[in-house]
Amino acid sequence: MRKFSAPAPFLRFFSSLLFRQFGNMLVLSAVYQSSRMRQRLPLPISQNTIRKLLDRTIKVLTSVAPNSPVLQTDVSILKKIRESVLHQKPPRASRTL
Predict the structure, then answer these.
(1) 97 within some domain
(2) Does 93 reside within a domain?
(3) What are 45-78's pLDDT values in tens digits?
(4) Which of 4-8, 41-45, 64-68 has the lowest mean pLDDT?
């Protein structure tokens, strides 16, 4: 009988999702900042929407960042992008999701 080792594949899958979400937020933030690119979107993105998406992504990445120096850097980058795009500092993260 073969042993089932789910944690390693699951962690790799979860990590790849987090890295993809970080990349998605980079692209979305860049599009939001460009008036030319924003016009090409099928649906408009409001400042409130981009704020919520950035805050949610920052919150999730912050919760797992202590396990990954790369994710810690990603959180730092997204916080700087949030300040640049929205001219606001992100809210202080709580310990719970």
Answers:
(1) no
(2) no
(3) 889 999 999 999 999 999 988 888 989 999 999 9
(4) 4-8
Residue 65, domain extent: 7-86
Q: Specify if 77 maps to a domain.
A: yes
85 residue type, one letter: V
Q: Which positions ≥6 away from 77 have C-beta within 8 Å?
A: 22, 26
**DSSP SS3 for 26:** helix
The residue ranking higher by pLDDT, 94 or 19, is 19
Report whether 23 contacts 71 (CB < 8 A).
no
Cα separation, 88 vs 91, in Å, equals 9
> How many domains does the structure of the chain reveal?
1
